[in-house]
Amino acid sequence: IMTDVSQYGCELANIEDIALEKKVGRGAFGDVFVGKYKSEQVAIKQIILGSNKAAEIFQEFQKELRLGSM
């Protein structure tokens, strides 16, 4: 679903590099976890796309990427 996240200063992660540790929150479109990415502690947003709002969720996530890259 994501094609070019490099425009936001991001990269697609390999699932093997991600370890969820503890759920710390829940938003309108998914859950937030503390975890590890390549052994570094990070916040991880797990987006739920299995709904009829997938396009809206994707657009909101793109907005978050833009804000995070500023």
Write the layout of secondary structure elements.
Layout: E1 18-27, E2 30-37, E3 40-47, H1 54-68
Antiparallel strand pairs: 1-2, 2-3
Question: What does this molecule look like?
Answer:
By secondary structure, the protein is an alpha+beta fold. It is 21% helix and 37% strand. The protein has one helix and three strands. It has one helix spanning 54-68, and strands at 18-27, 30-37, 40-47. The protein has a three-stranded antiparallel beta sheet, with no helix packed on it. A hairpin with a 2-residue loop joins strand 1 (18-27) and strand 2. The longest helix has 15 residues, at 54-68. The chain starts with 17 loop residues before the first strand and ends with a helix.
Question: Features of this protein?
Answer:
70 residues, globular
Structural class given helices, strands, pairing?
A: alpha+beta
- N-to-C order of helices and strands: EEEH
Helical coverage, percent range? 10-25%
Number of strands: 3
Mean pLDDT: 80
Largest pleated sheet: 3 strands, antiparallel
Question: Counting H and I runs of at least 4 residues, what is the number of helices?
Answer: 1
Q: Which overall shape is indicated by the principal axes computed on the Cα atoms?
A: globular
| Content of β-strand | 35-45%
Distance between the termini: 23 Å
> Strands of the biggest beta sheet: in what spatial order?
1-2-3
Which consecutive residue ranges, at least 5 long each, have pLDDT under 50? none
- Rg from Cα: 12 Å
